[in-house]
TrEMBL record, chain A:
SUPFAM superfamilies membership: Aromatic compound dioxygenase
Record GO terms (molecular function): ferric iron binding; protocatechuate 3,4-dioxygenase activity
Region spans: Disordered: 16-40
Domain of life where this protein originates: Bacteria
Gene3D superfamilies named in the record: Aromatic compound dioxygenase
Protein name stated in the entry: Protocatechuate 3,4-dioxygenase beta subunit
Record domain Intradiol ring-cleavage dioxygenases: where: 87-115
InterPro entries: Intradiol_dOase_C (IPR000627), Intradiol_dOase_core (IPR015889), Intradiol_RC_Dioxygenase (IPR050770), PCDO_beta_N (IPR024756), Protocat_dOase_b (IPR012785)
Alphabetical keyword list: Dioxygenase, Oxidoreductase
Family according to the record: Belongs to the intradiol ring-cleavage dioxygenase family.
CDD domains: 3_4-PCD_beta
UniProtKB/TrEMBL annotation, chain B:
Keyword Hydrolase attributed: no
Domain Intradiol ring-cleavage dioxygenases, first and last residues per copy: 53-81
Matches recorded under InterPro entries: Intradiol_dOase_C, Intradiol_dOase_core, Intradiol_RC_Dioxygenase, Protocat_dOase_a
GO terms for MF: ferric iron binding; protocatechuate 3,4-dioxygenase activity
Pfam families: Dioxygenase_C
PROSITE patterns: INTRADIOL_DIOXYGENAS (PS00083)
Name of this chain's protein: Protocatechuate 3,4-dioxygenase alpha subunit
Keyword Oxidoreductase part of the UniProt annotation: yes
Transmembrane segments: none
Family the entry assigns: Belongs to the intradiol ring-cleavage dioxygenase family.
Keywords: Dioxygenase, Oxidoreductase
Organism of origin: Actinopolyspora xinjiangensis
């Protein structure tokens, strides 16, 4: 056995600690969202210490990102139907620090509210020029940018005449297993929010607002595309002012 | 140095609240989206030490969950991560990450290696384990579990996480041996519900 797999006893491991943020997230057993009834665990979650497996995470790089992955409007021979939009923003942690060079994945319905997926039975048209999947890396300051079309709302049978508000799914890794986040970005002023149990599963109204992008006139492309801004905040390292001081002293 | 001044500067740093989680939904597997063709293969078939890790994702009445996504994260066979925050260094090429969409019977699989034990800050040692993220329609946030190995009874007995859980449910975290690897079924709910963790 190579002794370096354990390290010398004298080398005490000092690991970062990521803040717990349970108050931001929905309860797993949200009854109004009926699919939770047989799928949400019922026993209390056990607290897992944040050791090496938790404070590390996959380092996924540019090898995962193709040339047109950031532009969902150029992935086919023709242009997709719908309202062109730029979706851009910054990935940060809850210490306010940018998360650079991290993979951002998105997927969404087309402008008619239909996913290119065999399981989607909504009788709205598929668009031969739109797949609805994208990915990009954040830059050195945590910024990301996609070009896409605005997705449509769609019915989903959860309750009588249930409709999902328009949304784009986001998948984020951050730099640690603790930071993994799957969320949905919604659009401002959607009249469907009040009846959507997935959006409403986040009980704190202020937290719900953090899933809604902002119209961003400054980032529009004149005569071409509107723009929305969406910052995403992952768990930070629970940095105390003292620890930040020490970072600064280098 | 004058700490009081520097602290007041640091206190003015904005600490934004985190973005809430939402379900991955039923459509994450549309073409070009989350599942990757090489997602389940952390290393090529025939690699030294390669083993199969497979299982099924089951709901509260034991029915398969055919629209889930399982992700794993683990150290290599020497206990190493290719990650800059590992204070022991980053001496491995092993990717450590795998992703597999569940099939019609809720089945998933990974070709990987059994990791080594890991040191902890308090001087104890964690038995070989694989961290698991479970995502599915009906799960409003990911749930996390750990896979331990049945051929590590001594290390498992000393593991601080296994030692802290309800002994009656501890076995839900331990895979079973198969001819070419290990089996680990994940039960989201029910009498034999898998132990899930808050990280």
């Amino acid at each position: 056995m190579p002794t370096d797999s354990i390290g010398k006893p004298a080398d005490r491991l000092i690991l970062p600690e990521y803040e717990r943020d349970d108050a931001s997230h929905p309860a797993l057993d949200t009854e109004e969202y009926h699919s939770t009834s047989l799928r949400s665990p019922r026993r209390p979650l056990q607290l897992l210490p944040q050791n090496l497996t938790e404070i590390t995470g996959p380092v996924l790089g540019h090898e995962r990102v193709g040339d047109t992955d950031h532009d969902l409007t150029v992935q086919h021979a023709g242009e997709p139907l719908g309202e062109r939009i730029v979706v851009s923003g910054q990935v940060l942690d809850s210490d306010g620090k940018p998360v650079p060079h991290t993979l951002v994945e998105v997927w969404q319905a087309n402008a008619a509210g239909r996913y290119r997926h065999a399981g989607d039975r909504h009788p709205a048209p598929l668009d031969p020029n739109f797949s609805g999947a994208g990915r990009c890396m954040t830059d050195e300051n945590g910024h990301y940018r996609f070009m896409t079309i605005k997705p449509g709302a769609y019915p989903w049978r959860n309750h009588d005449n249930a409709w999902r508000p328009a949304h784009i799914h986001f998948s984020l890794f951050g730099r640690a297993f603790t930071q993994r986040l799957i969320t949905q970005m919604y659009f401002p002023g959607d009249p469907l929010f009040y009846q959507d149990p997935i959006f409403q599963s986040v009980r704190d109204p202020k937290a719900r607002e953090r899933m809604i992008c902002e119209f961003d006139l400054d980032s529009t492309i004149p005569e071409w595309a509107l723009s929305y801004h969406f910052d995403i905040v992952l768990r930070g390292r629970h940095a105390t002012p003292f620890e930040e001081d020490e970072d600064d002293e280098d | 140095m004058d700490h009081s001044n520097r602290r007041s500067e640091a206190a003015s740093v904005v600490h934004p609240a985190t973005t809430p989680s939402q379900t991955v939904g039923p459509f994450f597997a549309l073409p070009g989206a989350l599942p990757w063709p090489d997602g389940p293969e952390l290393l090529p078939a025939g690699s030294p030490g390669a083993t199969l890790l497979r299982g099924r994702l089951l709901d509260g009445i034991g029915d398969p969950v055919p629209d889930g996504l399982i992700e794993i994260w683990q150290a290599d066979e020497r206990g190493r991560f290719a990650h800059p925050d590992d204070p022991r260094g980053t001496s491995t090429d092993f990717p450590g990450f795998g992703r597999c969409a569940t099939g019609p019977d809720g089945e998933f699989w990974f070709r990987t290696v059994k990791p080594a034990s890991l040191p902890t800050p308090d001087g104890s040692e964690e038995a070989p384990h694989v961290n698991v993220t479970v995502l599915a329609r009906g799960l409003l946030a990911r749930v996390v579990t750990r896979i331990y190995f049945p051929d590590e009874p001594t290390a498992n007995a000393a593991d601080p996480v296994l030692s802290a859980v309800d002994p009656a449910r501890r076995d839900t975290l331990v895979a079973t041996a198969e001819a070419d690897g290990y089996r680990f079924d994940i039960r989201l709910q029910g009498d034999d519900e898998t132990i899930f963790f808050a990280v």
